[in-house]
Amino acid sequence: MVKFKTLERKRFSDEVAEQIKQHIINKQLKPGEKLASERELALEFGVSRPVIREALKILEYVGFLEVIPGSTGGSVVRKANPQLVSGTMEVMFQLGTLEIKELLEARRIVEKETARFAAIRATTEDLARIEQTISYMQININDPDVKTKFLEANDSFHTAVARAAKNQILLLNVNSLRQAVFNLIEKHNPGYKSINSALNYHQQIFEAIKARDGKAASTVMEEHLTSFENRLND
Amino acid sequence: MVKFKTLERKRFSDEVAEQIKQHIINKQLKPGEKLASERELALEFGVSRPVIREALKILEYVGFLEVIPGSTGGSVVRKANPQLVSGTMEVMFQLGTLEIKELLEARRIVEKETARFAAIRATTEDLARIEQTISYMQININDPDVKTKFLEANDSFHTAVARAAKNQILLLNVNSLRQAVFNLIEKHNPGYKSINSALNYHQQIFEAIKARDGKAASTVMEEHLTSFENRLND
DNA sequence: TGCATTTAAATGGCATTACCATTTAAACCA
DNA sequence: TGGTTTAAATGGTAATGCCATTTAAATGCA
Q: Which bases of strand C sit closer than 7 A to a protein CB?
């Protein structure tokens, strides 16, 4: 039995987006280069302007292009940006479950192992970066807007640790999971106890990483996140 | 000096997309639910239909929605889909921002921890499901199309183990990473040795899970995937 | 000439209208 | 009753027009 490919009629906008995307991936369109105007692209592809616009908006949203208005504006190819390209991971985590428990657990698991690798691979720059997030948290502990500062520093800390692990997927995973968690508990206002606890754990984790003690780093990270989870349950 | 927030005029389509996205994240819109028609949304938001369409296309592309034509069509909130994540990883790989080494490592890390939880939480149904994938592999080991059957059984095995861990996020993660790996090494044809090695490891992992030995399950899973990585390097 | 001003052109952003193809359900008829 | 036809709803696409912004060219003035 011969197998034929099912013919599927795709949307014009999807095909346009796909073609432009392929050109970018194949380096036929390089970062900084500008595409033709929407009106010209419409002529080239033989479709209407709204179709072109839908395609451009898609590619802009996922990070391939930047669409600039004005006389000399247009659609410019952006530099590769893994963070933007992979908001997809975060999207999936949001759609994946109604149970925040699962999200927290997954985060704990992934991040604890990431900390282990951070201890092994952190450069001096990584160490400095991690330490700085701790200082920042300490400095602002009496700031009137301590909550915002804390959340900032917390983000930076976990990102810095994940970055030290030298694995982009782990970094993306850690960031996406954390982001997904905080999206779901936005009402949560960290109290003085939470902040102090986090600060303390962050210091311990930093020391472990600095001492190249992967086992300790992973253990303390797990404790840190477990403690965070327990605090949420109250 | 008082600091004012710079007013930025965002595009309507971006704002519409953002609002819908937030509703999905807040679970005010759940997977399976259908949005109003484009014409109705245009009225609700007070903008034109093309603006709505641009927003919907963006959200569809990144995986939040599925837009279905026809009389009873519309925009439906999607379920989580590992394929979208692995697809994104593939793009990152093609753009040169991701190395396959990182992918393999991330997979090993996530899956080893997932196996640990599987050992703790697997039900008898889970055990049966896992065992069946092993039988399937054994039965077809002399099949002329053994490679295809092997890949099938391999997928089923790792999915079954992850499913036993009772965490949808981990399941999604495991499947995304495995799919991404196999997308990027498609040319790789598993030889007799690979298949036998995998079969052997799968059996050991199953025994460990059955014995509720989380430590062993995670250790053997890690060995299994390390061995797989080493085989790829040849 | 040189500088400031005005003007015109190009671009993306948006609205409106209209029509098509597909799909579904209601209305109809045998 | 059951198959057929019809109508309605939806997304897909096209076409046109106008607006706001930005830039460069044209203009005017000193």
A: 8-18, 21-25
A72 CA → C7 C1’, Å = 17
Radius of gyration (C-alpha) of chain B in whole angstroms = 23
Q: B159 CA to chain A: closest CA distance, Å? A: 15
pLDDT tens string B70-85: 989 899 999 999 988 9
DSSP secondary structure of A126-152: HHHHHHHHHHHHHHGGG-TTHHHHHHH
CATH of the domain at B36: 1.10.10.10
When mean pLDDT is compared over A189-203, A215-229, B132-146, B173-187, the highest value belongs to A215-229
Domain of residue B216, CATH code: 1.20.120.530
Question: Do B22 and B126 lie in a common domain?
Answer: no
Which nucleotide shows the minimum CA-to-C1' distance to residue A49?
Answer: D14
Nearest residue: Cα versus C1' of D13: A48
Give A23-60 pLDDT, tens digit per residue. Answer: 999 999 999 999 999 999 999 999 999 999 999 999 99
Q: Identify the domain boundary among B46, B77, B108.
A: B77
Closest Cα to residue A170, out of A84, A63, A79, A89? A89
Q: Which of A79, A112, A132 is the last residue of a domain?
A: A79
| DSSP β-bridge partners for residue A34 | A76
